[in-house]
Amino acid sequence: MNGKYYQPSGYNSDFDFKGNDFADYIDHTRKKIRLARLDLHSDYCEEIIDANAPFMWLPKENSDYKKRAVLLVHGLYNSPFSLRDLGHVFYQQGFLVYSILLPGHGTVPGDLLHIHRQSWQKAIDFAVNALKDSIDELYLCGMSAGGLLCLDYHLRNPHIKIKSIITLAPALKIKNSIAPLSPLIAKILPWLEKNNQDNYSKYRSFAMRPVPEVYHLGRTVLKKMQQKKCLDIKLFMAFSNSDQVISAKACEQFFRHYASADSRCVIHHSGLNTNTDPQIHYLNDIFPETQPYVLRHNGLPISSENGYYGVNGSYRDPKKNELLYNPQFNELAKAIVAFL
User: Fold this and answer.
1) What is the pLDDT of residue 320?
2) Segment 302-326, tens digit of pLDDT
3) Bridge partners of 137?
């Protein structure tokens, strides 16, 4: 593998956009991606840039309907592409759909070697400020670390009116037992894994540096909620009990302890359902008719019709026993639409 993948590109270790316009931010970020990536020498150059760049989808304005917008925030090591399928769900409901690229992502894995969570916070702060005055209702939707950043944004800015927050597998607690030691480990071991970068929409080499950033952010959010006692905003949460990255138990505890009465939760699980809580709905996470068959972390927001990760998608992950898509994505989408 090209050793340049493991070095910072010099273009993407912080949030450096100085303007106020979202379209200008997209152009600025696309230029950085074009300068930093090492795989833009094929016929798929624009496709690769599109997958990693922030985007905005603007349906024709309906003067008889509220102007509603959703801001999509992807997870660690991933890209805006991972939330496109959910973006289409919102778009079909008449939403303006916006997506950001978190600093350190979408270029080369080495850009995460010196990342700080404050850079991610600056990115979401910019996006909300750029959107909030031109729309009637703003929703935040994030996956994994992105979901955590959405919760963090609201807790840092309770005066900013957000209609509701949609979180998928929020990284409230990292499942790996080494997470509390990650700040020390990151100083000694810069890389968790080094793999061939054969996936153009996410990193497959994993820098250690961002792990303690997510860990500390999760602790901060939980500490604030312990003081706050109840989340004063509608929350939708979805996760799989088979998730190998984040703690499903921590997600369920958070929802049960802090979610408001009008919040909703979808849990993908296996086994007998004895739940009587009307706020929680259960879906399967094991699918014997498929191989591999367990829904874990990255597949949660991906439709089976996704052209890259879906049933007939072009990408095939070498890992076994893990679905790259969610066979019950349509049911999850219906639950989100009903929540809206």
Assistant:
1) 62
2) 999 999 999 899 998 766 667 899 9
3) 68
Token pair in block for residue 15? 């949030």
Return the domain boundaries, the chain.
3-275+331-339
Answer CATH for 3-275+331-339 from 3.40.50.300, 3.40.720.10, 3.40.50.1820, 3.40.50.970: 3.40.50.1820
CB-based contacts of 51, cutoff 8 Å, min separation 6: 79, 80, 81, 200, 201, 308
- Report, as an integer, the average pLDDT of 282-294: 78
126 DSSP β-pair partners: none
SS (H, E, C) 68-84: EEEEEECCCCCCHHHHH
By CB atoms closer than 10 A (0-12, 13-18, 19+), residue 226 is: exposed
Phi, psi dihedrals of residue 306, rounded to the nearest 5°: -60, 130
Q: Identify the bridge partners of residue 293 per DSSP, sorted by sequence position.
A: none
In angstroms, the CA 197 to CA 24 distance is: 29
315 burial class (0-12, 13-18, 19+ CB within 10 angstroms)?
middle
Distance CA 120, CA 288 (A): 38
DSSP assignment of 202-241 equals: S-SSEESTHHHHHHHHHHHHHHHHHHH-S-SSEEEEEEET
Instruction: Find, among 166, 293, 314, 151, the residue nearest to 237 by Cα.
Output: 166
**Hey, how many other C-beta atoms are within 10 angstroms of the C-beta on 63?**
5
Q: Hey, what are 209's tokens?
A: 């540096």
For residues 194 and 204, give the distance between their C-alpha atoms in angstroms, rounded to a whole number.
Answer: 7
Which two three-digit tokens encode residue 169? 């597998």
Lowest mean pLDDT among 78-82, 153-157, 233-237, 320-324: 320-324
Nearest to 73 by CA among 215, 169, 213, 206: 169
pLDDT in tens, 248-266: 999 999 999 999 999 999 9
Range 129-138 average pLDDT? 94
Looking at the DSSP bridge assignments, the partners of residue 57 are: 97
